[in-house]
């Protein structure tokens, strides 16, 4: 049966929980060589049939599902998301529901994940490419870099692909509006490759504040120096 083995923060915009299940005897012979690529693809299809309804019923989208081998165990990675994002508590809830669904599917005789496995449920991080309309909609306000296919300026002949960096100001099922150095432009998704969210670093708005702190420190040093001089005078008077 599945059991919680850990929960870790995966960085900005991403959370992950891990669950594992020990090997249970099934009475079926096991392939000691492990599954080939085609077997993993078939297993992924069976996993999706079990996992996607659970994720959707919880109110989330199944963004990605992968299965791989790590030694003697399988690693099942599930990525979920929703409008407004998903926090660690919600990810943990989905992880428990998916784990229970996998256990139930195997109890009914389905060979979903043969042997020992580790389940990882996470939300997308900022490095997740934007490939679907909902990805763009969920990143309105962010700075993105994207390849525009055959991009042209008004009145020019069709040109080759070029890189665009702009802020997502609006997105719907048809396309996205980007604010670039050339102004705001509208793009159909068919014209764009996968978008990449850019991490932005801010600078201090006022550069004078550190100087004021240094000035205060200088004033404090001057006061300390004056106190030291007074102390020295007191010592000399006592010696006399």
Structure write-up:
This protein is an alpha+beta fold. The protein has 3 domains: 120 residues, GMP Synthetase, Chain A, domain 3 (2-Layer Sandwich), CATH 3.30.300; 65 residues, Roll (SH3 type barrels), CATH 2.30.30; 37 residues. It contains 4 helices and 10 strands; from the N terminus they run E-E-H-E-E-H-E-H-E-E-E-E-E-H. The strands form 2 sheets. The chain has a 5-stranded mixed sheet with strand order 1-2-5-4-3. Helix 1 packs across helix 2.
Question: How is the topology of this model organized?
Answer:
Blueprint: E1 3-9, E2 15-21, H1 37-57, E3 61-70, E4 73-81, H2 88-107, E5 117-122, H3 133-137, E6 143-148, E7 162-171, E8 175-180, E9 183-188, E10 196-197, H4 208-239
Helix pairs in contact: 1-2
Q: What keyword list fits this structure?
A:
about 240 residues, alpha+beta, GMP Synthetase, Chain A, domain 3, SH3 type barrels, five-stranded mixed sheet, five-stranded antiparallel sheet, 10 strands, elongated, disordered N terminus
Kindly name the structural category: alpha+beta
Write the H/E string, N to C.
EEHEEHEHEEEEEH
The gross shape turns out to be elongated
The major β-sheet equals:
5 strands, mixed
Gyration radius from CA atoms, angstroms: 29 Å
Poorly predicted runs: 1-13, 23-37, 203-215
Helix content percent band: 25-40%
Number of domains: 3
Give the total of beta strands.
10
Give me the CATH architecture of the largest domain, please: 2-Layer Sandwich
What is CATH's topology name of the largest domain? GMP Synthetase, Chain A, domain 3
CATH class of the largest domain: Alpha Beta
Cα(first) to Cα(last) distance is 88 Å
The largest sheet has its strands arranged as: 1-2-5-4-3
Q: How much of the residues is beta strand, in percent?
A: 25-35%
The CATH H-level superfamily of the largest domain is: RimP-like superfamily, N-terminal
**Mean pLDDT across every amino acid position:** 76
């Amino acid at each position: 049966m599945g059991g919680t083995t850990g929960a870790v923060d995966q960085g900005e915009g991403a959370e992950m929980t891990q669950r594992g299940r020990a090997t249970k005897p099934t009475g079926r012979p096991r392939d000691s060589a492990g599954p080939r690529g085609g077997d993993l693809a078939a297993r992924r299809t069976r996993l999706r049939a079990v996992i996607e309804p659970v994720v959707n019923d919880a109110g989330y989208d199944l963004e990605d599902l992968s299965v791989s081998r790590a030694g003697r165990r399988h690693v099942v990675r599930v990525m979920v998301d929703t409008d407004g994002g998903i926090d660690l508590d919600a990810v943990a809830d989905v992880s428990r529901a998916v784990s229970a669904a996998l256990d139930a599917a195997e109890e009914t005789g389905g060979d979903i994940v043969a042997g020992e496995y580790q389940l990882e449920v996470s939300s997308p991080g900022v490095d997740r490419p934007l490939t679907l309309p909902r990805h763009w909609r969920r990143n309105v306000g962010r700075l993105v870099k994207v390849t525009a296919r055959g991009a042209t300026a008004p009145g020019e002949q069709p040109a080759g692909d070029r890189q665009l960096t702009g802020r997502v100001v609006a997105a719907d099922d048809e396309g996205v509006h980007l604010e670039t150095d050339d102004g705001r432009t509208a793009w159909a998704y068919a014209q764009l490759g996968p978008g990449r969210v850019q991490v932005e670093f801010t600078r201090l708005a006022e550069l004078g504040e550190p100087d004021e702190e240094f000035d205060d420190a200088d004033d404090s040093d001057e006061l300390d120096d004056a106190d030291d001089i007074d102390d020295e005078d007191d010592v000399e008077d006592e010696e006399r």
